[in-house]
Design brief:
The structure is a homodimer of 411-residue chains. With 411 residues, chain A is an alpha/beta fold. In chain A, β10 and β11 form a beta hairpin. In chain A, α4 runs parallel beside α5 and α6 runs antiparallel to α13. The radius of gyration of chain A is 20 Å and the shape is globular. The model of chain A has no long low-confidence stretch (mean pLDDT 98). At the A-B interface, α3, α8, α9 and α11 of A face α3, α8, α9 and α11 of B.
Chain lengths: 411, 411
């Protein structure tokens, strides 16, 4: 993979020009894109900026995010040729920080379940996951050092786990989602993919101007392990990743304890679906009511199945969400971060399914920062990650603990 | 004004066809639009739908809300000729309920301060207020029975007060704001203008499917009067409106008490600006950074002035907001609703200013439902309203108490 931190250091030291840093990504894309199909479209003649902390950094943008310089087709023929007038704020923040938008990455249609043609860079017979398929694959394959994704259930952390990339779904509200196609306004969160946790921290600091995100690993974090039994049992590879990550952290000096979650947390896991689907019926009202036949079949089927959710059920679900957020905040009184599964296991075989977000959806509902750290390589060369979860608003500590874990796993 | 409730009743009783109900609006617009300039564009041949609770109801849509059938120009030359592919969800919800979108209404550029050419229907020498200028004027003038506005500080309740219309800014999250040009994602709220409170309740119930919004006035509400001293003193006309509304409510059987707000509420009033401007710099990143010269001058000046707000100040402001929401929830243990000023006084003279949102911004920050009820006619025939404020999520009670007050004032 291409390390953003490494490029930044060499560019800052004048050992590498931004143009050459960018050219490295272009060459890597040229070498792999035909096989992997991570991009929907690309800039044919990208130029590096000469200033800004992200100068020379090629960024891929998930194709549900508006860009003025590229079509934004949402993975759906309903938006074929759609060309926004405006860059989404998150794209403007990247450009303002010096980054070069290298192209748009494949997304499942409307960031739902209908798969893309993208292949897993570690094993072409497997899915890269979704919905941020192209962003995860492009970073995991070493084509680009940074990519944007979005997560409504598990669309950043799960594909990162499958593709062996680091990723962060920051605290809800940290990154603007104006100009990002809406699935659920309560859940949709913009996230980042990069080679490692330091790369994520540097990118997030550059985008937001929040320098508190930069410091390195914390020593000896208190880690609460959460098995998410309410979400069912993981595959062997998922369980193994969590075991390996926990053992590595303990050996490196962390104190681990298994945290039992209060009942409202399991209930929150269950009602994520209600919030997501109720809002999706409004968010996709135009597509579903005016373009029913052209809707992606899996998403259309989901919307057909969730038509009956009532406003009262939605209100009750939101009330559970509020209680769960408070309960989770309590849990963080005893630990620095939580450690849990990023996905049930390695990437599923074939391209018919993008995998199961069941270990992700709770944390999207609660809005906590989640960082995927690759932990284990399963059969077939497929990576499996774990996620480090911070208190709401404490992205700095989530990143610092994830760096600790990453270093522990590298020993 | 045209009463939506009255049209609904007559259409339901087959005394009036939806087509004839719609024609009444078209005739009223034709008679007054040249003088008032409430609309940016209109449907030349509008058709009534034959089913749905809002059949025959002509609705005006503030021109920062995406419509597939009309340009959406945001009140700014930067968006001249902009034609969205998609109807915003709130527009789809209206159409699904049977309404006819009659046209787009004038908005201050990007819903900020730069005025529109719209005149106050009660006195052409005065502003209709803003930013939802055309929607407030069109309903206040009796051109249409229903219009959409949006409020980030005071852009629904204040122009409603100035134009003598009823209006509701519902609880934050009740109406979807996907496809509405963003100013501040924490604050922006879609609201409705109509002739009276029953009309608002019927429209909101039809849009959301929430029948609990429909019942009539509550008897003898407990009302907490809030003077908002932290926002400065009102004009004589504003103070008079609040006095008259309080007295009418008391005579009709309400129990009134003046509620002192805790200090965090005043602090929340002060930091509304920080949340609004910090997010606006991200929301308008493309316009401000790529189209600086074409930006509306008042908004551009505001953004120039607020450049220095830091992420730390924003985080602190959001923390105050969270505390204020909790403190306000406590206040509702003792009363059914709050009663306070909708605006400092009557609509200012001339069109250079759209008035001052200082009595509105707190309640936009806290997300509580606010209903404007016309209370008093000041010199020059200018209406002055008061606002009834409900607990978060209790739009039904806010509407029921506003109906009580409206009836009390009519005696």
């Amino acid at each position: 993979m291409i390390s953003l931190a490494d490029l930044q250091r060499r560019i800052d030291a004048n050992e590498l020009s931004p143009e050459k840093a960018l050219a490295q990504s272009v060459a890597a894309i040229d070498a792999q894109e035909t096989a992997l199909r991570a991009f929907v479209c690309r800039d044919d003649a990208p130029r590096a900026q000469t200033s800004g902390p992200l100068r020379g950094i090629a960024v891929g943008i998930k194709d549900i995010i508006d860009t003025a310089d590229f079509p934004t087709e949402m993975g759906s023929r309903i938006y074929r040729g759609n060309r926004p007038r405006v860059d989404a704020p998150i794209v403007m923040l990247l450009k303002r920080a010096g980054a070069t938008i290298i192209g748009k990455t494949e997304t499942t249609a409307f960031a739902a379940n209908d798969p893309t043609p993208t292949l897993n860079p570690h094993n072409h017979g497997h899915t890269p996951g979704g919905s941020s398929s192209g962003s995860a694959a492009a970073v995991g394959a070493g084509m680009i050092p940074l990519a944007l994704g979005t997560q409504t259930a598990g669309s950043v952390i799960r594909p990162a786990s499958y593709c062996g990339a680091a990723a962060i779904k920051p605290s809800f509200h940290l990154l603007p989602k104006v100009g990002v196609k809406c699935f659920s306004w309560t859940l949709d969160t913009v996230g980042l993919f990069a080679a490692g946790v330091e790369d994520l921290a540097r990118a997030l600091a550059a985008i937001t101007g929040r320098t508190e995100l930069l410091p390195g690993a914390i020593a000896a974090p208190k880690i609460g392990v959460v098995t998410q039994d309410f979400a069912g049992a993981p595959d062997a590879a998922g369980a193994e990743a969590l075991r390996i990550a926990g053992r590595a952290a303990e050996r490196a000096g962390a104190s681990l304890s298994e945290l039992k979650m209060p009942d409202v947390i399991a209930e929150a896991w269950r009602i994520h679906y209600v919030v997501q689907e109720f809002e999706a019926h409004q968010a996709f009202a135009w597509e579903y009511l005016e373009n029913y036949e052209a809707m992606p079949p899996l998403l259309r089927g989901r919307l057909d199945a969730s038509k009956g959710i009532t406003a009262a059920e939605y209100d009750a679900a939101r009330a559970v969400m509020v209680q769960a957020r408070a309960a989770l905040a309590e849990a963080f009184r005893e630990v620095d971060v939580l450690l849990t599964l990023s996905a049930p296991g390695a990437a599923p075989k074939g391209l018919t399914s993008t995998g199961d977000p069941r270990y992700n959806r709770l944390w999207t509902l609660t809005g906590n920062p989640c960082v995927n750290v690759p932990a284990f390589t399963a059969e077939g060369g497929l990576p499996v990650g774990v996620q480090v979860i911070g208190a709401y608003g404490d992205d700095a500590r989530a990143l610092a603990a994830a760096r600790f874990l990453e270093a522990a796993l590298a020993r």
